[in-house]
Amino acid sequence: MRVRIEITTTASEIPWPDVLKPGRGLIYSLLNAADPELGQRIHEKGWGPHRLAPFGYSGPIFPHAPRKRGVYTAGGRGYLELGSPVPEVGVALLTALAQRDTISWGPVQLRVLTVTVDKTPPPSSTFRTVTPVVLKSGRPPNLIAPSGGQNCLPGEAEFAARLQANLQRKAETLGLDPAPALQRITWIGPRRSFAVGDGYKPGAAVEVELSGTGRPALIAPTGGQNGEILAALRDWGLGAANAAGFGWVAA
To answer: Are strands 126-128 and 108-117 parallel, antiparallel or unpaired?
Structure first.
């Protein structure tokens, strides 16, 4: 489920350390308000065999705020997106949001105007992210339990293999194995760093083309597993650190 929150604020900017960082806390507060047991289970154990946090978000976006160099500008009407490929998580988020008039995003207060479920058609084979994508470096992806704590960024030699391994882990988490295949990376944005819980994490937005089960990943009206995993990725994100706001896919 993918939820779009229409917002407004009187603030003129969001401090760079708070562009993405508050989202993780917001989502856990929503889960704890609607389903405390679910929120605690995800926080302590993650989801599925790889213990992943099954949610993602975009950060606040204000399309009509005046642009200023070096400033993340805010003001007027905007939106915030969040989602989860796990239905019960999505329902809990939506339930809690229905009770919210305001959202505290770091030091910025966002007034909630509307909350809607995004019902746009399932994605095609092309995904473009609106927040940076990052992965972890480590052993070759055909070996079990990658090790190492270095970031692997778009454009680096092992990034494509790492992204494919990440797609597979997500498919296994959701019981939708096999994962779509990464066909090619068609665009890489500039590298940016954003604050997370333990410092700053770098990454870059990307556009990728995926395919599944040996055919282009276009969704027939009846859906099916191929459609399910692509829709799940759209509602979750690409790469790692989705629970920190990284890899959110454009609608």
So the answer is: unpaired
Going by the DSSP 8-state scheme, the letter that residue 108 receives in this structure is E
Q: Which residues pair with 47 in a beta bridge?
A: 52
H-run or E-run covering 55: none
Domain stop point among 117, 137, 152:
117
Confirm if 82 and 58 have CB atoms less than 8 A apart: yes
- In this structure, the answer to whether residues 100 and 141 fall within a common structural domain is no
The pLDDT assigned to 133 comes to 98
Q: What is the pLDDT of residues 207-236, one digit of tens each?
A: 999 986 433 333 333 344 667 899 999 999
The per-residue pLDDT for range 150-169, each reduced to its tens digit, is 899 999 999 999 999 999 99
Question: Phi and psi for 174 in degrees, rounded to 5?
Answer: -95, 0
What is the DSSP code string of 184-242?
EEEEEEEEEEEEETTEEEEEEEEEEEEEETTEE-PPPTT--HHHHHHHHHHHH-SSS-G
Decide which of 117, 151, 181 is a domain's last residue: 117
The predicted-structure confidence for 29-57, as pLDDT tens digits, reads as follows 999 999 999 999 999 999 999 999 999 99
Please state the pTM of the whole predicted model.
0.90
| Whether 85 and 146 share a structural domain | no
Q: Which structural domain range is residue 49 located in?
A: 2-117
**Which of 58, 85, 87, 55 lies closest to 231 in space, CA to CA?**
85
CA distances from residue 168 to 22, 53, 171, 201, 229 in whole angstroms, order as listed = 28, 15, 5, 23, 10
SS3 87: helix
